[in-house]
């Protein structure tokens, strides 16, 4: 008996050869897709299409189960990223916990006593308690220097979408704004009712369908590059909104450091694919135009359809 | 110190009062949103907006951690649903296992020995080994009798989207087709390379960003109504494509029955909101037009943005 399992799996990895485009109203073109699979495209990618991690923009979170790497986005949230650096350097998260896991929404971590002024952990020197909202940036900030690459595909949430510096980005040229999109694996800074009430000490990561309705409502600070499954596969909290009922259900955070503060010989040698590279464009096309196992090619992707690949430095 | 956690959480549940619509190009209208929160809308919903489970169209999967309820979709996959009924009635899945959990993709279950003809569990009497592909149905099947309600929101994957009988549905009027969409929690039937190679014995559920590129490529058979977190929070498999390396890593399936075969007094008394009800339309509007904690209202939703609610029968 054929094993459906392998083949269901294979779809994500299937070579995309010549495909008849989807007869959707907004995409009339017929187009040849790359004749290579995602693995073949990655295997053939030139070294110049990859970049190293920036040690000042990478958080290393240590759980008992392993290491989570988070790339920060100073171009989009400069004040929050500066504060997060100060929090990490001050050991703010060491010994704190993952407090909340809400299915199909977010995993969130910070100070379990954050609401109790008497017990809350003080912020370290150099960290601010409140920051300005960084829900969007002027659109010229995703110009040439950011290597913004626009997707041709329609997006219901924003007039323009694409990628910049490894992040999914949405923009509204008429309003002159650009912002990071809430895709799977994106990390944001929890806030109170006031727009300037976040400081980066309480962070969340998206673990389900992209909650794009949050875009422009909260400051997004980065993306999980590695260890996502350590945050997404945690037991869901059973109290309201996915908070854990009991302290012992929480997952402890052993330590969070900036990669720059990890001894050089202990640093994970990870590389990230450049999103203004030909390799990334080919990978997106391989998802847009499918063949092989696929009998229907969507002729479409969205910014949350694909995560930017990482690899161990060769 | 304010606790960002509660407020990040509150967004999903925030009352949507008067909102200025998003200035997105495709939605110029300004519109008043319902002045009620999702909870208030649900609390005020008339009994007639809810329906009971159909015992012939509901699967009850028992794991050591609890019960998963799956609603089947005979309107969209009649042959697969009939086969799944025969498989359940023949005890096919009893003692089998969850074989694969791939982060941000699917959890999949079936016969671990399915690929080994000598060891594979034989299909029970009345179940077919191969079924015709049921990737779409004629569009007239989502006519009046199905209570199809169209979303006004643009969707990049299909020219028309909406809900029918509790399921997210996409359609292409020009091609005369309608199909179930791969949203979070939707259940499909794994297949091999041949389009008619699925039989419903190997099933998967979406546990991440909606892989809409699978639409029209595989038969979707239903939706998880309850117990989703028992499938989404499992450890990710570390072998290729999220399969488990070792048999002991798998999660055992104790038993799968049709609800009709569960003694009446043991049946979970769950109700599902009707998707052609005013309550469902109000809930969608409360997500489209936000206020309160939100400073930006997206003016948009998509079929995978919201799951159809269930409740314990009052």
Automatic annotation (TrEMBL), chains A, B:
GO MF: isomerase activity
EC number: 5.2.1.8
Signal peptide (UniProt feature, chain positions): 1-23
SUPFAM superfamilies reported for this sequence: Cyclophilin-like (SSF50891)
PROSITE patterns documented for this protein: CSA_PPIASE_2
Domain named PPIase cyclophilin-type: residues: 66-258
Keywords (A to Z) from UniProt: Isomerase, Rotamase, Signal
Listed name of the protein: peptidylprolyl isomerase
Organism per entry: Pelomonas cellulosilytica
């Amino acid at each position: 008996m054929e094993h459906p399992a392998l083949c269901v799996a294979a779809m994500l990895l299937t070579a995309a050869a010549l495909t008849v485009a989807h007869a959707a109203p907004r995409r009339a073109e017929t187009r040849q897709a790359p004749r290579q699979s995602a693995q073949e495209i990655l295997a053939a990618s030139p070294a110049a299409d990859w970049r190293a991690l920036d040690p000042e923009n990478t958080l290393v979170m240590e759980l008992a189960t392993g290491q989570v790497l988070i790339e920060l986005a100073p171009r989009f949230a400069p004040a929050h990223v500066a504060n997060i650096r100060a929090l990490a350097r001050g050991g703010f998260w060491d010994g704190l916990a993952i407090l909340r896991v809400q299915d199909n929404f977010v995993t969130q971590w910070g100070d379990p006593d954050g609401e109790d002024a008497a017990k809350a952990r003080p912020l370290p020197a150099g960290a601010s308690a409140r920051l300005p909202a960084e829900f969007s940036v002027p659109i010229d900030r995703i110009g040439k220097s950011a290597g913004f690459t626009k997707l041709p595909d329609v997006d219901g949430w924003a007039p323009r979408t694409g990628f910049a510096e490894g992040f999914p980005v949405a923009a509204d040229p008429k309003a002159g704004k650009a912002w990071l999109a809430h895709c799977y694996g994106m990390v944001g800074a929890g806030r109170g009712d006031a727009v300037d009430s976040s400081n980066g000490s309480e962070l969340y990561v998206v673990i389900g369908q992209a909650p794009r309705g949050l875009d422009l409502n909260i400051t997004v600070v980065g993306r999980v590059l590695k260890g996502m499954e350590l945050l997404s596969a945690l037991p869901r909290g059973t109290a309201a909104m996915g908070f854990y009922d009991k302290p012992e259900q929480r997952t402890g955070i052993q330590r969070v450091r900036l990669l720059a503060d990890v001894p050089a010989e202990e640093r994970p040698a990870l590389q990230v694919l450049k999103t203004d590279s030909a390799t990334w464009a080919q990978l997106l096309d391989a998802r847009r135009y499918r063949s092989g196992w696929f009998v229907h090619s969507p002729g479409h992707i969205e910014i949350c359809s694909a995560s930017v690949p990482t690899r161990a430095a060769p």
